[in-house]
Design goal:
The protein is of the alpha+beta class. The chain contains 5 helices and 16 strands. The radius of gyration is 17 Å and the shape is globular.
């Protein structure tokens, strides 16, 4: 699915913060068929380049070196999710009132947009993006592209109330084989929703975090290829109502999901 704009409250971008940009670019390019576009950064921002993962020239996500403060704090490489907002300042004004915290104040990114990072009441960080020249995803829901994002949290009710108030999404409960699951819907299109689930007992030790899933044509083959490329398969290919998925840790340590979606179950 090609996209030209992203509705407020819908996932609009994902970004990998990694300890080795070149190795990460090579890994994901081989696994997901990406090409790399190195967008030059101005000298006042430190120079260098911001890497845009693309498929046939359409933007899929970003790859960047981890910030020094993250490395100093022992934060491992990770994927971040950004939600689209129409007015970043107005959205940030709701965060504290709703029980969240602004981790990074609104910042202009040249003429391409404005960004911020917040933390919901359960402690999960999330990026916000007000688009200017950079609208966000150029493709969604097809092989190699993001196909789903979800928050795994220790307090689903608190997180749901927060995002309903801050992003204006509509919460829709879904019975996922006996597991309570909530769709946070910004609109009716495939790309205009994300997921929310309470962590299971097995997940208790992991932090509350947003997860990123990429669409693949064959989950088993992609998981095997990831392993050959040096990744660790944290959860082997498994069937669930939305499709067949696997959870992977890339060679630098960032965790992500892959899924061959079930065409008969639109989220």
């Amino acid at each position: 699915m090609k996209l030209t704009a992203v509705r407020e409250g819908a996932p609009s971008w994902v970004e990998l913060s990694t300890s080795d940009e070149a190795a990460a670019i090579d890994f994901y390019s081989q696994l997901l068929g990406w090409t790399d576009y190195a967008a030059p950064m101005p000298e006042e921002s430190g120079g260098g380049a911001y890497h845009m993962a693309q498929i046939d020239g359409d933007n899929i996500g970003g790859i960047a070196a981890q910030q020094p403060q993250e490395v100093a704090q022992g934060v491992p490489p990770h994927w971040s999710v950004y939600m689209a907002v129409d007015d970043l300042d107005a959205t940030l004004a709701k965060v504290g009132e709703a029980g969240g915290q602004v981790l990074m104040p609104a910042m202009d990114v040249m003429d391409i947009g404005r960004m911020s990072f917040i933390m919901d009441p359960t402690g999960a960080p999330l990026g916000l993006w007000q688009a200017k020249l950079h609208k966000g995803f150029g493709r969604y829901g097809e092989p190699g592209a993001v196909t789903w994002t979800e928050l795994m949290t220790s307090d689903a009710a608190a997180a749901q109330a927060f995002f309903e108030r801050v992003l204006g999404v509509e919460a829709q409960p879904l019975d996922m084989e006996g597991t309570a699951y909530t769709i946070l819907r910004a609109g009716d299109a495939q790309n205009e929703a994300s997921g929310l689930m309470g962590k299971t007992e097995e997940m208790a030790s992991m932090p509350n975090v947003w997860a990123v899933y990429f669409e693949v044509e064959d989950t088993d083959a992609s998981a095997a290829k990831a392993s050959e490329l040096g990744a660790t398969i944290l959860e082997q290919p498994t069937d669930i109502p939305p499709g067949r998925f696997a959870i992977i840790q890339d060679p630098q340590g960032a965790v992500f999901g892959i899924i061959k979606s079930n065409p008969n179950m639109a989220m």
